[in-house]
Specification:
mainly beta; Glucose Permease (Domain IIA); 4-stranded antiparallel sheet; 1 helix; 24 strands; disordered N terminus; binds zinc ion
Length: 322
């Protein structure tokens, strides 16, 4: 399962204390919350909040080094401070940019002031609006068939932000194909850990694909080093993207597939989707039933689709599409 992970650190702004002896110590505390971040180092390599003091004004910036937009939510506790926004403050920040978020400043500059804040972020945009007319392919090879072991509202773990996820039982290293096209937004493939315990929640390997409507497709529990696409690469429905596995919170080898949008920096909203199979279209998958993937559409040439992203390693340069 992919779950929110929080990381904490504190900054003690001693410089400010020295220069402004009447001020209280500034204590800034950030809680990073990422849909899928296990494997990254604490402190948020890909997301950080930068504060910049200019006299009594403190400007807050978000540095987003994800390949995708992120949504952050700030909460603040303060004494004798005003801000340029209300809190909690949620906003979406573009990829690979530093963007100004808000500023705080003393209500009465002659008196002491202080603040502490938390920030949570998750990949994706609050502006995403799912195209409910889109019919998804089954996320495996054309003609293959696998059983759904947990569907929408599954008792074991499909609730909350995973309410509308689907689990397909499949052997380790089974080819996983995109259910819908988009841009590869984020991947993890360095984990070999997994088991039927929530302690493994952050150990799942995954591919996140950003669809054109801004929603994200999540393919989880993948095999170690089993990802066949690169961040930034455009892929089409039906393309091979990974090999399945049993990493993360998982009771056995399977593929977990879900579509979601970002609610705010702390969470996401699970989205029910419809699938086509070899025999039917626009169906809702049901637990305990096996489904066969439809054949590749006539005229589809998987072998040359998708330009590898700049910097993609050789393993993405060809030969992976069947
Ligand atoms: Zn699942």
């Amino acid at each position: 399962m992919l779950k929110i992970q929080k990381k904490l650190f504190a900054i003690l702004n001693l410089g400010s204390r020295r220069r402004f002896p009447t001020l209280s110590v500034l204590l800034a505390c950030c809680a990073f919350s990422v849909a899928v971040v296990a494997g990254e180092k604490a402190g948020g390599k890909t997301f950080q909040v930068i504060t910049n003091r200019e006299g009594d004004v403190t400007r807050f910036f978000v540095e987003n080094r994800e390949a995708n937009e992120v949504t952050a939510t700030f909460e603040i506790k303060s004494t004798n401070l005003k801000a340029t926004t209300n809190f909690p403050f949620t906003a979406t920040y573009p990829a690979n940019k530093v963007t100004e978020a808000f500023s705080v400043f003393p209500d009465d500059p002659s008196k002491p002031w202080n603040y502490s804040y938390t920030s949570h972020y998750t990949v994706g945009s609050t502006l995403a609006k799912h195209d409910d007319s889109y019919i998804y392919r089954l996320p495996f090879a054309p003609g293959a068939s696998f059983k759904v072991t947990q569907a929408y509202n599954g008792k074991y773990s499909h609730h909350g932000s995973d309410q509308y996820a689907i689990d397909f039982k499949m052997p380790n290293e089974t080819p996983v194909h995109a259910a819908r096209g988009g841009i590869v937004a984020k991947i993890k493939q360095d984990s070999s850990k997994g088991g039927p315990d929530r302690k493994h929640e952050n150990h799942a390997n995954y591919v996140l694909i950003r669809h054109d409507d801004g929603t994200l497709g999540n393919y989880a529990h993948l095999a170690k080093n089993g990802v066949k696409v690169a961040v930034g690469q455009r892929i089409e429905a039906g393309d091979l993207i990974a090999l399945s596995g049993n990493t993360g919170f998982s009771s056995g080898a399977h593929l977990h597939f879900s579509v979601f949008k970002t609610r705010d920096g702390k969470g996401r909203v699970s989205i029910p989707v419809k699938f086509e199979t070899a025999n039917e279209t626009a169906i809702t998958l049901v637990e305990g039933t096996s489904y066969r993937s439809s054949a590749v559409k006539p005229g589809t040439i998987l072998a040359v689709k998708g330009e590898p992203a700049p910097g993609a390693s050789d393993k993405f340069q060809g030969g992976q599409k069947k």
